[in-house]
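Need histidine kinase's 3D structure for a figure. Predict it.
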Amino acid sequence: MLLLVLLQNALTVATDDMLRSKTTDVAEVLSSGEMAEAGQNISSAEGQGLLIQILDGSGRVVQASDPELLKTPMGSLRPNPGESMAKEVSFLVGVTGDSDGEFYLVATGATSGTDTYVVLAARSIQVQADTVRTVALFLLLATPALLLIVGMAVRFLVGRSLRQVEITRAQVADIDAGHLADRVDVPPTNDELAALAVTMNAMLGRIETADTHQRQFVSHASHELRSPLTTLRTGLEVSAQDPTHRTWLDMAPLLVAETRRMGYLVEDLLTLSKAEDNGLQILRADVDLDDVLADELRRLRSTTGHEVRSRLEPVRVSGDARRLSQVLRNVLDNAGRHAEHTVRVTLTADDGTARLWIDNDGPPVPEAERERIFERFVRLDESRSRDTGGSGLGLVIARSLLAAHDGAIIAGEASDGFCRFEIRLPLLGSR
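Structure prediction for histidine kinase:
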């Protein structure tokens, strides 16, 4: 319906513009006093399908594009000079024969000296009406067929898309915990469905990686707990068979040590779990990092036979003193376990960053292992770490706690070949 209205309006506007232009041209010729020239002007309009009359002030036809039009004015429109009027009419007075039908009539007032005239111009709009009716009939007949074709095309395209969605859904539904390595097929259509399949495979890859890490975590944790539990069980069984209880007295220190080791491991596992789930509570305050480090160095000197050297500058940071102390203890204990003779600690500050170097004269971490060393339960020297009580979680916890403080820890090598761990923290007020 809107299309028909727009078409009708466009045809009407085109006819109106043409007739107004013609009557205006004739009126301008009349205003110059050239009646003969005006007659020639309207005579040339016959080939354009136009009917034109010039009426004098009394309403008499003085010039016409066709001799038959000299008898009677075509219409009753009488605009003032310089004005125009338009009207659709069902017939024209005095017009017969092939020109019968609907017409569009335009009248423009004109003057020539003291005389007034009216220029009438008309054109049949029967063809225009027939065109609109033809288009309407075409739309009436073609629209249902077009809608049917579009509907079938939409059904086909949507059906094909939904089939691929169903295939992807079925493949995902078949992937269970025992088949996380499976992936869905990516259609060769290079469209949104293909992108969905690629995204789904990426998600399945992340799930598989997380599941693998979880299984490794459980396996490693079980392995770590098995050793102290086996020692406890064996010690208790042996002690229970000794009626004199002397074995119990001999085994007690070992059993207490294994209990502590198991407690430390459980505490480390809990801390790591909270850190990875963003569940650690960081109570920030102004912390004198050099004082916290000095306390941990005193503890290290009392628990190790190595030489511990230190050079500390006053450094203040914003953080949780208890958690930062845990970081320093883990890294210092790691240095103490792997040192041959010497542990060297340097604390300084520059460019808004606190820098702490913890070096030991043991072998440096191989370059290829400097990222893996911060993974859970990783020991580069397995037997040695177990003998010295390392759980393989200290450095992981240190990195997680430092990340919660906007800091970092890096494994490297000092210029003199010492094994180095560098800790960086933003200074107080630098952020």
